[in-house]
Amino acid sequence: MNKISIIGAGMTGATTAHWLAEREIADLVLVDIVEGMPQGKSLDMLEAMPIIGKDVEIVGANDYAATRGSDIIIITAGLARKPGMSRDDLLSKNAEIVGPAATETLKHSPDAIFIVLTNPLDTMAYLTLKKTGLPRERVVGQAGILDSARMRAFVAKETGVSVENINCYVLGGHGDEMVPLTRHSNVAGIPLKEYLPADKLEAIVARTRKGGGEIVNLLKTGSAYYAPSVACTQMAEAILKDKHLIVPCAAYMNGEYGLKDMFFGVPVMLGRKGIEKIIEYKLDEDEKAMFEKSAGAVKETHEALKKLVEF
Ligand code: APR
Description:
By secondary structure, this protein is α/β, with parallel strands linked by helices. The chain is built from 11 helices and 14 strands. It has a domain at 3-141: NAD(P)-binding Rossmann-like Domain (Rossmann fold). The strands form 4 sheets. A 6-stranded parallel beta sheet has the order 3-2-1-4-5-6, with helices on both faces. Adenosine-5-diphosphoribose (APR) binds at residues 7-13, 31-34, 76-81, 90, 94, 97, 101, 117-119, 222-223, 225, 228.
């Protein structure tokens, strides 16, 4: 059985374990600093397995020894947003948590692939790559599947068509400057721009960009976790099953889309080696301008990180 360790057993971490356990694709370890909490959640989930008929081992721990030999490490440890906060407001606190979590878990699982969820996402993935020194194939950030799913959900609601027929691609940084690519999005193959009137489409794009904030404002005490965690589950499954699945994720740029030394949301192919390929769309002038703006915002956060942390 494959093994996945989840660092941070809060809302996102525990819900990721829940989705993963249902798919029976790996034994699971939940790690958190809060004493008893990861053990309690793991035991509770383990006791659910007979009911759903899944043979999954689930353990909780307060140290990293239990993560030994993991195929995948998922990092969700850190603070979540509260109303009025941007993802970037989390930078310094979460960098102090994610950096050590990445280096310590790597010691126990030298062959693991890292999936990062902690925000600010692109910069926490950058920190993980720099701190671990891993090749870029093995560090991937979750954001694009979630942002695209939000857009798909809004299009489904507007059109009354099944979510299964709706394909949307939201690329760029995981912030307010993210890039919903309407030209590449469609309803059963019909371009969104033809399917929806311009004002409706514009409203969906705007709501997608603020999708995380909408939920933070409703929850008041934390941020979204059901959709982020199932997005992460899809990534883990694609990796372990070597599916060669093309999905938007945050990847380290080495010249793609004219970007270097930064993480950015782009379509990637996920398989057993992690990121197998980065797909480059042909962008028109408007899309290029949106990419540049979004990349500028991500670079600013990367620069802020470099002032806080030495690599
Ligand atoms: N090691 C392990 N766990 C830690 C550490 C650490 N050093 N520091 C904090 N944690 C744990 C907390 O104890 C908490 O249980 O991380 C967990 C975070 O859980 P929540 O507060 O419920 O936050 P969550 O909604 O899961 O979001 C976590 O993921 O999606 C992102 O923006 C989100 O950055 C946030 C992160």
